[in-house]
Amino acid sequence: MSPQASRQRPHDRQPSPPTRDWIVVAVAGAGVVVAGYLTVTKFMGGTAAFCTAGGGCDAVQASRYAMLLGVPTALWGALAYAAIAGLAAAGLTAARWQAAFLIAAGAVGFSAYLTWLSAFVVQALCAYCLTSGAIAVGLLAVLLWRPPAIAGRRSPMRPARLVTLGGVAALGAIVLGAGIFAANPESSDPTYREALARHLTDKGIVMYGAFT
To answer: What is the largest CA-CA distance in the chain?
Structure first.
């Protein structure tokens, strides 16, 4: 074998297949379970387990923010978690990891926006929604903890690049969601007022008004 052929052989070797990241799959799977359960509950018109009528979950699930583009908002979260789980199960190459990171960053941003709406607009909090948001944050943290081993100035894992792309994904999800909600101001669930009244009554909140 000539020295030239010997030098070329390492470059001709195929890279080893990416390793499946089962930790990411497990965390994303937990998100699918929680968001999927909220989706089924919304479709069935029932109340989530351990959530009493008039409680925070009841009010949040009956609000117009529980529906997005004609389907339960939780369904979009379940799809995002499922996409990340699929990417991790296939093996996180640099491109797949970056896609998973962008989806997770968008999920964190949108979850934060929904939590703000729940707290300050609906004035109620849903434990399941908060759990889903916490899973999104945890999933993003796990992805950052376990990136594929790629280095160099052109690596997609450079901190400045990640901060920029993650911020754009999170802000983009918030703007897109806010725009859709704003474009459909009358899309409230017809049971929202009833659920809100039960929630306010349960909290002992009374509103007084006067006419002149």
So the answer is: 101
Our measurement of the distance from residue 179's CA atom to the centroid of its chain's CA atoms, rounded to an integer in Å, reads 17
pTM of the model: 0.79
Which one-letter DSSP state was computed for residue 13?
S
**Segment (H or E) for 72:** strand 71-72
User: What residue has token string 């450079």?
Assistant: 158
71-72/67-68 β-pairing: antiparallel
The DSSP letter of residue 208 is -
Residue type, 177: G
Distance between CA atoms of 128 and 130, rounded to whole angstroms? 5
Burial of 149 (0-12, 13-18, 19+ CB in 10 A): exposed
Cα–Cα separations (whole angstroms), residue 79 to 73, 85, 147, 208: 10, 10, 22, 43
* Cα–Cα distance for residue pair 127/176, rounded to 1 Å: 24
Dump pLDDT digits (tens) for 52-62. 766 778 889 88
